[in-house]
Each structure stands twice: as structure tokens, then as C-alpha cells.
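Handout, section B. The chain below has 269 residues.
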Amino acid sequence: MATVDDIDPDRLKAYSFQLFGKLEGAVTAGMVHLGDQLGLYEALAAADGPCSAAELADATGLTERWVREWAYNQAAARLIEVDTSGDDERFSLSPEATAVLASRSHPAYGMGMFHRLPQTMHALEHVRDSFRTGLGHDYDSHGPEGAVGIERSFEPWNRAFLLPVVLPALEGVVAKLERGARVADVGCGAGGAVLLMAEAFPESEFVGYDISRYALDRANDKLAASGLTNARFVDPRDEPLPDDASVDLVTTFDCIHDMTHPGQMIAAI
């Protein structure tokens, strides 16, 4: 049984620093979310050199005092650069920070993961009950912004790697898609992969399957905006994945491990 009767003061101090460092990281993660949502990172990336908090506030239409405190947090966390040699601090992004924080088309772009931070934290209330009941929660419990966050997380990867790297690595797949194939994307989310493939291979037909109504709504909105006619999105509870071998290619990206019964899904595919 653990007791507090024989505590090493140095180890206690080290342990406390370790624990509260996690809280510091959580607070900073919240500031990263705000930097993304308020356009602060993109404004820093677009600036002609390092800028003051006042200049950053003017560029984003925000209040200087709040922007300054945000910038102090980000500089202390070593996420943005700060120059203190002049009368006022000036802030900027390194090239690497620009890729991760402000370049939506770069494969290293990471703001999608922070987009859904509020939904993730809110889910703790539900997860607390899950520890007692053993029951999980579906994607839609994170609300519409949860679907947006997942979409933003994978869009840069899809654009950077799906067409130029992943599909060509599969023997004969690109040639088949060019001639015309039936493709199912299981766990399609907001349809990013489906729409990229449908645009690249107009002779093929693509069906995206997902159970998240928020993700399907986004997928269908994007489909309508694209004008593509060789793709559609369905809920597998309404239209199950065909079991007659009529599908030539089944794709699934980063979702099977999150399913309640992954083995059953793999068997269905």
C-alpha cells in the first residue's frame, strides 16, 4: 500500500514538475487551437517579416492585449519565434512552424488535430461514464466540428500521397481505375479521398460509406460543389457494402481501429 510517510523531497519536486508539465501542455494546446481558429498563425505566415503584437492584432482584427498574451504563451512554448532586441517584441514563424501551423496544403500541416480539441475535451464527460458502462461513443457525439476536424487532419495527407504515391504502389490498380472500376471507400468521412479519386479517374464509379451524418453532410455538400457525377455517399445501414464481388477496389483510411467490431468490418470488406 502506498503511503506518504517516506517521501524523497527531490523526487517529489521532479514528479510535481512532470505532472504539471502535462497541464501546461494542455493549456498550450488550447492556445494552439485558438491560434488556428483566429487566423493568428496564417497572419504571422503572411506578414512581411516579424511583427509586433499590435501589428498582428491589426492584421486579424483582434484586441492587442489578448494577442500579446497569446504570443507570449506561444513563444514560451517555443512554437513561434520572438525577437526581443528592440523596444517591442516581434514575433514570427520559422519555415518548419509555417508548414505545420499555417500551410494547409503541406503534408505536415497539423491544425486539423487541434480543430477538434474542444470536442475531445468535452467527450471526457461521456468517457467517464464509459469507464462504468463499458460502452463507447460514435463520431457524431463530437458534433459537426468533430467531422470538420477529422477532415482537416487527413486532407493534406490525401492530397500529398493518395494519388501520386499510394495508388501507384498497388499493382495494376491505376490502370484499372483509368479503364473504369467500381470503388468503395469504407469510413469515407467527409469524402476527401473519394472526391480526389473521382476527379482523377472519371471512368470509374466511387461510393463512400460512413455512419456519421455530419461527415456525410459535408461529403455531399462538397460533392455538389465539385460537379462530379461519378461519386456518391451513403450510410451503410441504408445501403450495405455489396457482398456479390461487384466492387473492384475497397479502400479504408485510418478508421478500422476505431470501430466497435473491427474484425467484422475486415471480414465484410
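Note. The radius of gyration is 23 Å. Compare this with the example in section A.
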